[in-house]
Every structure is written in C-alpha cells, then in structure tokens.
Design a protein that fits this description.
421 residues; alpha+beta; BirA Bifunctional Protein, domain 2; Rossmann fold; eight-stranded mixed sheet; five-stranded mixed sheet; 16 helices; 16 strands; binds histidyl-adenosine monophosphate
Length: 421
C-alpha cells in the first residue's frame, strides 16, 4: 500500500469499527450507571479560557507542559486552551449557572494533553466521569467511589485496585507542607535535578515523582495522614467505614498525591494490574473543596472522578472481558434483481425495528453472500425474480442450521422478531 499523504497527528488515533462499537458500549454503560445514581449529563465546551485550566495548579505538568493553548482571532485575542480534563470546566459551569446544590453531573468526551505518546498515553483521550458539587458529607465520597468501583466490576474486570488517601485541607495542610519541605530540603542534594526544581514550587508534587533516584527519599517522607485535624481524620474514617460496609476493597496509599493541585481531603486512584505500571491508572479523583471559589463562585465543596476510557479498554483486552457488542444488523438483504427491491425490504425491516443492511452495485449472488457473511448478520433475505413475483423473500439462516425457507414480505418483520428474541 502506498504511504498515505496524511496520518492522524502524533498521539491521536482513529478508532474504527468494531472497536468503536465497544467504546460506545462502554460509554453507554457508564451513562446508564451514572443515570441510575441520580447524575445528569453535562456537555461542556472542548475549549475554555486558559485561566480556567490554570486553576488545576500552576506547578503541575498538565498546566506547565501539556496544555494545547492558542490565541483566538478576536481583537484583542482571547487565550484559550483545549480542555485537559473536565473538573475545572464543571466548576466554571457551576460558578456561572449556580444550579441548586447538590449538583450531581456526569460527562464523557475527549481531553487533550501534550504528553509523550506511548501505549495507553495519548494526546487526545476519552474520559467518563462524575462530579458532585455542594456536598460536604462523606456519604458523597462513598457514593462516588463505589460508583466507579461497581462500574469496573460491571465490565467484568477483576484486576482493578483502588488506592485511597486523604490530602487534608487548608487547616492541616500548612503544618504538613512545612514538615515535608523541611524533610525534602534536608535531602535536596540527593533528589533528581527535576525534583529539586519542583521542590521550590510545590513540595507535594515531589511525591508524584516516578524517578528512581527520588524513590528512597519519597519513601521516608512524612505523610499527610499523620497531620490531619480531628475533623478531617473523622471524614476520612467515615469514608473508609462506608467503603467497607459496601465491601469495596481498597488499600491506603499515604503517598498518593495525584497529578493535579486542586485536591483536598479524600483522593483515590484505580490501577489495572494487567497494564504496564507507567500507564496503569485507569481512573482517579477526589475532593476539590476550594476549586469553585477559586474560579470566582461561592465556597462549594466538590468530589468526583474521571476514568480513562482508552486505558479501560486496554485493561479489558488484557483480561479478555467486555468484547465488542454484536452487530445490530439482523438481516442482510441480498437482491439479485438489480438492487431496488433491497431498498424496499430494508426500509420495511428498519421501520419494523429490525436492523438491516444490503450490498450496493448490483453484484453477483456469490459476492453479495460474502458481504452478508462478513456483516455478522444472522439472517440473509434473498430476493430473486421468483421471490419478487410471489411477494416473498427467501430467508436463510447464516449462522445456525435452520437452512432456508420462503417468507411472505408482509410476515418478514414478525418472523425476524420471533427468531431473534
Ligand atoms: P487524571 O488522573 O488526570 O484526573 O485523569 C483521569 C484518568 O484519565 C487517568 O486515570 C487515566 O486513565 C486517564 N488519562 C489521563 N491522561 C491520559 C492520557 N494522556 N492518555 C490516556 N488516558 C489518560 C482527572 O482528569 C481529574 N479531572 C479527575 C477528577 C474528577 N477529579 C475529581 N473529579
């Protein structure tokens, strides 16, 4: 095959059938689960004012290195960016529209991060997620985490592990940050060059380093859970107790800080044991009790998560679960009289709620049967001159051993429903 003139940009990909059907089925499954949990869908703009995303944290990779930002054609131009995630957009929408809290919303869609692409890490990827705004209650944390956990289970995944931590709040964070900064500064010369720079901007971010030379120092660092105030510790205990009551398995991961700066109190991540560790996070989330206010809205607690659809499908591949759904086409219409009868029969079937497809170009019976076979449809409705004259089709079982029989056109929809239900 000749080299194509253009390819999809680096870090993006075309998702083609049947994989696209699997992706759609996964998103639909999530929409059902979120809807059943009382969440309504929000459809947000793909780009926002860059300032919205800056609130994710001025020292995070997402903001400093990975933003797809651009100036629009306005006078003066507005500095915009493709969204790298949706939590900031949802909080911006909350501050803008002031819905009645608690506001429970879900979303799906593409996100953009200028990362080094590799398996499971893309520059355009899809997330599904939920956010609850205006609820401080640990019950909200439990509800949200259990929703994600049950969703993974519903796909048939067994190798997804939940890590849980509390990052404290504005009351307990300063004392912890001081202890952490003192500790890391004491080990500054042993840290990687990158972490030394990070330390000057945000000590917490150093804990997120995956560089081998930092690991021993990180392992010895003080942990946030030892600095929680009574109130924050109680909240964390309630979340743990609720998860245990629901039999949601988790492990406490005291050094889990996540890659975004807005988190407070409960934070969590889901990792797929079947994937390479650099890309095994299939979802994550937590509380971000200051973000709405940061975006100019009223003080509003929030909690949510986002799951990476592309990575979840990789984990499903690795575990051999959640196959592509069967084709919704039940009947492939083979018309050897030229093609116009196929048009009528397909129309009749589709109007009757039966998925139907056909070939084009007046091809031979053999060629059309080949396409019928490839289509995955369980039945072929064959139309020749005899069938046209009799007002019938020949219905052939393509997958089983029922052979073929003539069916009156008027009975076709009823018969197919009877056979496929
Ligand atoms: P995040 O951890 O940055 O959190 O992303 C959530 C998930 O998106 C990751 O666990 C991963 O599965 C997927 N993901 C992230 N980057 C990529 C990439 N480059 N390629 C493929 N998949 C990727 C957030 O985005 C927060 N907004 C989650 C949240 C919601 N927190 C509170 N509410």
């Amino acid at each position: 095959m000749a080299e194509p003139t253009f390819r999809a940009p680096k870090g993006t990909r075309d998702i083609l059938p049947p994989e696209s059907g699997r992706r759609r089925a996964l998103v639909d499954r999530f929409a059902d689960a979120a809807g059943m949990g009382g969440f309504g869908e929000v459809v947000s703009p793909i780009f926002e004012d860059l300032g919205v995303f800056k609130r994710i944290g001025e020292s995070t990779d997402v903001v400093t290195k990975e933003m797809f930002d651009f100036l629009d054609k306005g006078d003066p131009p507005q500095h915009l960016a493709l969204r790298p995630e949706l939590t900031a957009s949802i909080c911006r929408a909350y501050a803008e529209h002031r819905p009645v809290p608690p506001w429970k919303v879900w979303y799906e869609g593409p996100q953009f991060r200028y990362e080094q692409p590799q398996a499971g890490r893309y520059r355009q990827f899809t997330q599904v997620g939920v956010e609850v705004l205006g609820a401080d209650d640990p019950q909200a944390d439990i509800d949200v985490i259990a929703l994600a956990s049950r969703f993974f289970e519903s796909l048939g995944l067994t190798g997804v592990q939940l890590s849980l931590n509390s990052l404290g709040d504005a009351t307990c964070r300063p004392a912890y940050l001081e202890a952490l900064t003192d500790y890391l500064t004491g080990h500054n010369s042993d840290l990687s060059a990158q972490s030394q720079v990070t330390l000057e901007r945000n000590a917490l971010r150093v804990l997120d380093s995956k560089r081998p030379e930092d690991q021993e120092i990180i392992d010895g660092a003080p942990v946030m859970v030892d600095f929680l105030t009574d109130e924050t510790a109680d909240h964390f205990a309630s979340v743990r107790g609720g998860l245990e009551a629901l039999a949601v398995d988790y492990t406490i991961s005291a050094r889990l800080v996540r890659g975004l700066d807005y988190y407070t109190r409960t934070t969590f991540e889901f990792a797929a044991t079947s994937l390479e560790s650099a890309q095994n996070a299939v979802g994550g989330g937590g509380r971000y009790d200051g973000l709405v206010e940061d975006l100019g809205g009223p003080a509003t607690p929030g909690i949510g998560f986002a799951l990476g659809v592309d990575r979840i499908l990789l984990a499903c591949d690795a575990e051999g679960v959640f196959p592509a759904p069967p084709s919704p086409v039940s009947v492939f219409v083979v018309d050897v009289t030229g093609g116009s009868h196929a048009l009528d029969v397909c129309e009749r079937l589709r109007r009757g709620g039966v998925g139907a497809d056909r070939a084009y170009g007046g091809r031979s019976m053999k060629a059309q049967m080949k396409v019928a076979d490839r289509s995955g449809a369980p039945y072929a409705a064959i139309i020749g001159e005899d069938e046209v004259a009799a007002g019938e089709v020949t219905l052939r079982d393509l997958r089983g051993d029922a052979g073929q029989r003539r069916v009156a056109l008027d009975d076709l929809v009823r018969d197919i429903h009877a056979l496929t239900n």
